[in-house]
Design goal:
Helix content: 40-55%
Shape: globular
Oligomer: single chain
Strand content: 5-15%
Order of helices and strands: HHEHHEEHHHHHHHEHEHHEEHEHH
CATH class of the largest domain: Alpha Beta
Largest sheet: 5 strands, parallel
Bound molecules: S-adenosylmethionine
Radius of gyration: 22 Å
CATH topology of the largest domain: Rossmann fold
Number of domains: 2
CATH architecture of the largest domain: 3-Layer(aba) Sandwich
Strand order of the largest sheet: 6-5-4-7-8
CATH superfamily of the largest domain: Vaccinia Virus protein VP39
Length: about 325
Amino acid sequence: MPSGIIPILRRVRRSKSSAQATRILYTGVELGVFEALKGTDEPQPAGAVAQERALDRQGAYRLMRALASLGLLAEDEKHCFSLTEAGELLLEDHPMSLRGVARLEEGPAHYEVWKYLGNLVREGVPPNGFQREFGHDVFAHLEQDPAYAQRFNEAMTSLSRLESAQVKALLGDKAFEDVEHVCDVGGGHGHLLCTLLEDAPGTRGTVLELSEVVNAQEGHRHEQMGLTDRVDFVVGDFFEGVPSADAYLMKHILHDWSDDECIQILSSIRQAVSEGARLFVCELVIPGPDRSHLSKLFDMHMMLATTGRERTVEEYDELFAKSYQSS
Ligand SMILES: C[S@@+](CC[C@H](N)C(=O)[O-])C[C@H]1O[C@@H](n2cnc3c(N)ncnc32)[C@H](O)[C@@H]1O
């Protein structure tokens, strides 16, 4: 066997076992293993966690050993377990919690939808995986399944915890200097908008969202951050129209839609804006073939769940040019 094959074999093996790793991580979250270890002063035997969470003793030990092997728990000589720094990120109340992302991405709906990947590559989209499994698209699913909506919104807020700080650093403190009103189009629970407005006391904001997100209220950031006097939530459909504002934010919106649908959304914004308004778009951007990148993997999810896709810089340029020409 040529020696160069070993690292290649290891690489393929790692890709294969990452599917097992996400399933193990998800099961630990769903069964409450991380929560059971929260705030314990001493490492705990698996039996104590099994008793607290009504799990099989042996099953709990084997799962926790696997979680320790992933670096999410630490196992000591006595086979007792504690949370690692990485495992703490899976606690619900951690300020940077990623629990929502884990629960959405490996949860029951996405688990069903991913089985269609081969069909989509063979037959093309539409219909995408959501349409094949549930007969409707992902946003209709949010409306019809409150448990899915809860997972989805928790995951969006989870991701925003990481991204809002990055966007804020990128935009700097002058982005909203002369902006009176900013609208976050499809702004979820308002995490990004509230983070940006925290240090822009002269600016007010509106989150435009679907009724189930606005009416659910749970998790809305303006209440948690004391910004209810400057931030409001309005129900609307960005294909129909958006509130008038002098700046717009769109984070992870365009990637959900086909070029034609994006052009419709951009056209709703154009119809509402005054001269000189600004639009800030935040998306993953697909880099060239020489780089391995999350966006190339996440694009598979976009194919399964939406009519959209992740795009390269050139594809975004082309999309904005087409939108401009169509106005
Ligand atoms: C991928 S999420 C992004 C949420 C948020 N911008 C973020 O980055 O966390 C897409 C959002 O678009 C909202 N949405 C989908 N269709 C919509 C429509 N027609 N009008 C308004 N909002 C919509 C969804 O409810 C969802 O919150």
